[in-house]
Design goal:
5-stranded mixed sheet; alpha+beta; 14 strands; about 25% helix; CNF1/YfiH-like putative cysteine hydrolases
Length: about 240
């Protein structure tokens, strides 16, 4: 069974899925849901089907994006002929599951239960700085959601203690509240989840975070930084999804 985590702020069916409960093997073990890489397509399709069924959705209704670390948000309703290049999506169509793929970046799931509008966003530091979280909320509002009713939850991502960055990233983010001194001169520890929550709250959106570290928890999560520190190789990705 596909393993997932939930948060009480989201009353719609949702899950921040771990890497457990899939059919992939090796570096992709087990629940790899990434659409890129060398994991056999049949394995990925089965993993994604398990995710959809775990949320009570038809596997054909699980939507994903070609994520490009930007602020573009699209509406998901009818099936796409090709994956849109975007990092956020919204819908008010019952049964359509919105799924974002991560392996250290922050997945964000959104809900206005009264309006019946959901959203999902992929927020690495570039996407967060460019405003993808706020853009997702605004796209929900365009579908009838109310700013004061939207709840957003940031799922598992790389934690501050694990996320060492250089001064150029600190300068691009331009908010010193979310940086601690690094272990070496010229390096800093970035709080990605805290930054995402703060941006959403500043935009009038209720926001919280699971505060789980993808890098340190190898048993449950894939991690791009962990793979890089180990010298490279194949990389699996987890999925976070929500459905009305």
């Amino acid at each position: 069974m596909a393993e997932f985590l939930t948060h009480p702020a989201l009353t719609a069916r949702h899950g921040f899925f771990t890497r457990r409960g899939g059919v992939s093997t090796g570096a992709y073990a087990e629940l790899n849901c990434g659409l890129r890489g060398d994991d056999p397509a049949g394995n990925v399709a089965e993993n994604r089907a398990r995710v959809a069924r775990a949320l009570g959705a038809d596997p054909a209704d699980l939507r994903s994006l070609r994520q490009v670390h930007g602020p573009v948000v699209v509406e998901a309703c009818a099936p796409w002929d090709a994956l849109p290049e975007a990092d956020g999506m919204v819908t008010r169509t019952p049964g359509v599951a919105l799924g974002v793929i991560t392996a250290d970046c922050a997945p964000a799931l959104f809900l206005d239960p009264e309006a019946g509008v959901i959203g999902a966003a992929h927020a690495g530091w570039r996407g967060a700085v460019s405003g993808v979280l706020e853009a997702t909320a605004e796209a929900m509002i365009a579908l009838g959601a109310a700013r004061g009713r939207i709840e957003a939850v940031i799922g598992p991502c790389i934690a501050q203690a694990s996320y060492e960055v250089r001064a150029d990233l600190r300068d691009a983010v331009a908010d010193p509240r979310f940086f601690a001194p690094g272990r070496d001169a010229g390096y800093f520890q970035f709080d990605l989840a805290g930054y995402c929550v703060a941006r959403l709250q500043a935009a009038g959106i209720g926001a919280s975070a699971l505060n789980l570290d993808t890098l340190s928890d190898e048993a449950r999560f894939f991690s791009h930084r962990r793979r890089t520190l180990a010298g490279g190789g194949p990389l699996g990705h987890q999925i976070s999804a929500i459905v009305l």
